[in-house]
Write a structure and sequence with these properties.
The chain is α+β, with helices and mostly antiparallel strands. It is built from 4 helices and 14 strands.
C-alpha cells in the first residue's frame, strides 16, 4: 500500500505520470463494473448438475414405434428440471418427435413430458462414436418445468419414439450399460426389468453461483495437494492477484516523463 501511495504522490513524480494513473483508475472502474455484472450473473437462474450414471456404454438399444426404454432414477436435489441421454439416430433427418415422459415411481403417475424433433438427433456413422469421451459425444437434453420436492424420490424416465417405424434405418438408439452400474434404479424394456442402465445425466433448478459452487466442490475432492479443500487453487489465485497489482504499480512507476519537462523536484527553483 505504501508503494502505491509513494507512486502516486507528487514527490515521486506523480504529476508526470498522470496518464498512467488515469489509465490505472479506468482499469479499476472497469473491474468494478465487471464485478457488478458478475454478481447479477451469479444470481441468474441456471440448471445445476445433480448426478449421472457411470459414463460407460456396452450396448446399443434400438427403439421406435411401441418400444419403450424406462430408467428409474433418484434425484439428489430439489427442482429436478432436465435429463440428458445419449441417443443417436440410425439415419439423419428422421420424422416426428422423440419423447421423454417423467413418471412417479411406483405409481407411474405422469408428472412431466418433453419432446424433441427426431431430426435434431445426431446420426453418426456408428453409435459408438457418441460414447462419452469420444469426439462425437453429444447428449440429447430433455428439459421440463422443475419438479418441487424431487430430492430422494424415485422417478421413471420413459424414452420412446412413437412417430418412428420399427425398421432398420428408421429407429433411434440409446446407449446403455449391461450389467447395471446404477444402484438406485433399474432399466425397464417395454415394462420388463433388465439388469442394465441407460447413460444419463440429471440437472436441477438453481443459479450460476450454485453450479460453480458444485464445480468447486468437485475440484476440491480431486485435489492432489490438501485433498478435500481449495487451499492449493486459493494460494495460486492469491499469488496471481499480488503479481497483477505489482505489475500495475511497476507500469505506473516506469511510465516515461513528458518530453521537455524540466528535471528536478516539482515546485523547485531552477538555477
Amino acid at each position: 500500500m505504501a508503494l502505491i501511495v509513494s507512486t502516486l504522490s507528487p514527490g515521486a513524480g506523480g504529476r508526470r505520470r498522470l496518464p498512467a494513473v488515469v489509465a490505472l483508475g479506468l482499469a479499476v472502474l472497469a473491474l468494478a463494473a465487471g464485478g457488478v455484472r458478475l454478481i447479477g450473473w451469479w444470481r441468474e437462474a441456471a440448471a445445476v448438475p445433480d448426478h449421472a450414471a457411470p459414463f460407460s456404454a456396452t450396448f446399443a438399444m434400438r427403439f421406435a414405434g411401441a418400444t419403450t426404454l424406462a430408467q428409474r432414477v433418484r434425484p439428489r436435489l430439489d427442482g429436478f428440471t432436465a435429463a440428458d441421454l445419449l441417443v443417436v439416430a440410425e439415419a439423419p433427418g428422421l420424422p416426428g418427435s422423440v419423447e421423454l415422459r417423467v413418471e412417479e415411481w411406483p405409481s407411474r403417475r405422469l408428472v412431466r413430458t418433453s419432446r424433441l424433433p427426431a431430426a435434431s438427433v445426431p446420426a453418426p456413422a456408428s453409435p459408438w462414436d457418441a460414447r462419452p469421451g469420444q469426439p462425437g459425444e453429444r447428449w440429447l437434453s430433455f428439459g421440463f418445468e422443475p419438479i418441487g420436492g424431487s430430492a430422494g424420490r424415485d422417478y421413471l424416465l420413459v424414452l420412446s419414439y412413437p412417430d418412428g417405424r420399427d425398421a432398420a434405418g428408421a429407429r433411434l438408439i440409446a446407449l446403455a450399460h449391461f450389467p447395471s452400474l446404477y444402484a438406485p434404479g433399474e432399466l425397464l424394456v417395454n415394462g420388463a426389468p433388465q439388469d442394465g442402465n441407460l447413460l444419463f445425466r440429471l440437472a436441477a433448478r438453481g443459479t450460476h453461483g450454485a453450479a460453480l459452487g458444485l464445480a468447486a466442490g468437485n475440484l476440491a475432492r480431486a485435489q492432489a495437494i490438501v485433498a478435500g479443500t481449495l487451499v492449493a487453487p486459493g494460494v495460486l489465485a492469491a499469488a496471481s492477484a499480488v503479481l497483477a497489482v505489482g505489475l500495475a504499480v511497476a507500469i505506473v512507476r516506469a511510465w516515461p516523463e513528458p518530453a521537455g519537462e524540466p528535471a528536478g523536484e516539482p515546485g523547485g527553483s531552477k538555477r
